[in-house]
Amino acid sequence: MTKKVIFTNVKEEEMKKINNTILVAGLLLFVSGLKAQSIQEGKNDLDAGRVKNAISNFDKMIAVNPNDIEAIYWLGQAYLDNDEIAGSRIKKTKELYEKGLQTSANAPLLLAGLGHIELLENKTNDARQHFETALSMTRTKKGEDQNIVLAVARANVDAKSGDFNYAIDKLKAGIDNKGDKNPELFLQLGNAYRKAKPGEGGGDAFENYKKALAINPAYSLANLRLAKLFESQKNWDLVLQYLNDAVEKEPRFSEGYYELFYYYFFRAKFPEAEEQLKKYIDSKLPVTDIQDQYLYAQLCWAKKDFDCAIAKAESVVTAMGDLTKPKVYRLLADAYYQKGDYNNAKKYSDVFFAKKNPDDVILPDFENRALIMAKLGSDPESVYETYLSGAALDTTVAAKIDYLKKGSAYFKDNKQRDKEAKIIEKIIALKPAPSINDYFDLTIAYYFSGNYDDARATAIFMTQKYPDEVYGYDWAYNSAVAIVTDTTRKVSQDTLGFPAASKLYEFAIRDTAKFKKQYVNAVKFLAAYYINEAKDKEKSLEFFRKWLEADAANATTIQGYIDQIEKMPSSPSPKGAGTKAPSSSNGKIP
Q1: Minimum mean pLDDT among 35-49, 262-276, 412-426: which range?
Q2: Could you give the CA distance from residue 315 to residue 300 in angstroms, rounded to a whole number?
Q3: 292 Cβ contact list (under 8 Å, min separation 6)
Q4: Tens digit of pLDDT for each residue in 199-243?
Q5: Torsions phi, psi of 143, nearest 5?
Q6: Would you state the pLDDT for residue 589?
Q7: Which ranges of 340-435 would DSSP assign to H, the alpha helix?
Q8: Across the chain, what does the average pLDDT equal?
Q9: CA angle 292, 295, 296 (to 5 degrees)
Q10: What one-character DSSP code corresponds to residue 496?
């Protein structure tokens, strides 16, 4: 029998109070449920890459309750994920968290958020203090609060100056403390392993992403992280598989379509790229973003439809005005350059460099600017300085070397060999172990710029460092000959020419067939030296005969010199005496 609850002897006013209490309690539960739902919706938007949707969601929550700590925290995280210059994102989020802490002092979640900002500002000690404070404030006998652990881990994984191992320790403790049903803990642990152990951490990351999916098979963000993991390993089949899994599970997973757009974009599969771009834009509706036209501009640029690229990019400039991101100007500068409109290319390059954030500049920005300047007739020194400015960027040594090689190729192609030599000097200075090719390129650049002294010095260095290679001997000889034949220098053959030719000869006789060119040059020089300078008939004939034997194509000419020399007196005259050497058209044996 069902028991009935009977209110007896309850006055009407008391009954009203009871009813109001029940109503208020129910309303609070309802509102609390709505808030949790809204927070989760915002987080879902953020995970899916619908950042503006997330910002709109959290903004609405804060408008209803300005002291909503969770909404404030997640709004800041959305700001950090927004497509803006890093400096402005950090500033905006910091102001938001500091304002929240003014009205809700010592809110643990906001303290963790402020620590996140401090890591991005490289204030590691201040950040750690805020993390520990936030964790200690929410710590119970059962352990640390999972939401605070996640905030601390997210901050350390996101920032370059973050302590990845610290994040790993906190996340593992959180999982041990009844967090084994929370997929986000495993996702962040996978992220932390990837950051802590680039390359070797891939296995641990994979394992934790898979655990996140085992808990929540519909967790598309875990699929995305798996795709990015295999992207770093260049396993493109698995990249595509996991990206497709992500959008199949969540048809509005914007970030998945965004990655698929670039997957096809970089493979020049433009119809497929455009299809994914349309899905990306549709997945964010009803929110629209003029910045998506920049993606279309990139697509047009890749297809070499520069008019389309310019039209799309300029529509962004028109809509955004001073808020236009520098990358739009970068694209416009290059598109106009590709069209041959160098004035507009320079105009937008100037704007890009005026508005750029140091963290957002890449080496091709300087290369493009140098090429634009060259097309507009800028002096070589300015072009050279532009190339050099790019080399000062904080990037890898390999990237700098590749970039500088493009600069040296430019100056070589434009016959500005002195600038080419300076660029190669920088390349050699950057390399931990320069090769013989580097020194050879430097020697040639010096030589053809007319800097024969440095060409000779570098060639001699090659003979010392690579004594079994012909290149140093060959170009030490060529440079020495150039110096001694320069009438303004008045350098004697004995000082440079003869020693260089002798060393080249000594090297070339190792294999006169392989080094025929060098051998002929050496014996030809020595034959002429001994008759013209040393006045030594017998040594001269010795080398003329070696020349004759090696150079059949010029046998008649060489034999003519031999015949003239043989008619000379047998005894050589002292150097500078009156015996006259047989002459060619310039008065000397060549």
Answers
A1: 35-49
A2: 14
A3: 277, 280, 281
A4: 766 899 999 999 999 999 999 999 999 999 999 999 999 999 999
A5: 125, -165
A6: 53
A7: 342-355, 363-375, 380-391, 397-413, 417-430
A8: 89
A9: 95
A10: I
Instruction: Give start and end residues of each alpha helix (H) in 48-68.
Output: 51-64
Alpha-carbon dihedral 217, 219, 224, 226, rounded to 10 degrees:
-40
Measured in degrees and rounded to the nearest 5, phi and psi for residue 338 equal -65, -30
Q: Is the dihedral of CA 562, 567, 573, 575 positive or negative?
A: negative
CA 455/CA 462 separation, integer angstroms: 11
The rounded distance, in Å, linking the Cα atoms of 68 and 91 is 20
> Which residue do the tokens 């279309």 mark?
296
Residue 380 tokens, joined: 């070589």
Note the pLDDT tens digit of each residue in 131-175: 999 999 999 888 899 999 999 999 999 999 999 999 999 999 999
Cβ atoms within 10 A of the Cβ of 352, count?
24
Please give the Cα distance from 403 to 391 (Å, whole number). Answer: 8
The residue count for the chain: 590
140 DSSP β-pair partners: 143
CA–CA distance, 91 with 30 (Å, rounded to integer):
36
What residue has token string 């208020």?
24
Q: What is the pLDDT of residues 544-588, one digit of tens each?
A: 999 999 999 999 999 999 999 999 886 544 444 333 444 443 335
Task: Give the integer Cα–Cα distance in Å for 205 and 157.
Answer: 13
Sign of CA dihedral 92, 94, 97, 101: negative
Tell me if 365 sits within 8 A of 373, measured CB to CB.
no
The full DSSP string for 117-154 is HHHHTT-HHHHHHHHHHHHHHH-BTTB--HHHHHHHHH
353 to 153, 349, 367, 402, 552: CA distances (angstroms): 35, 6, 13, 22, 62
**Residue 151: CA count within 13 A, CB half-sphere:** 30
What are the phi and psi torsion angles at 570 (to 5°)? -65, -40
DSSP state of 579: P
Residue 305: alpha-carbon gap to chain centroid: 26
CA terminus-to-terminus distance, the chain:
130
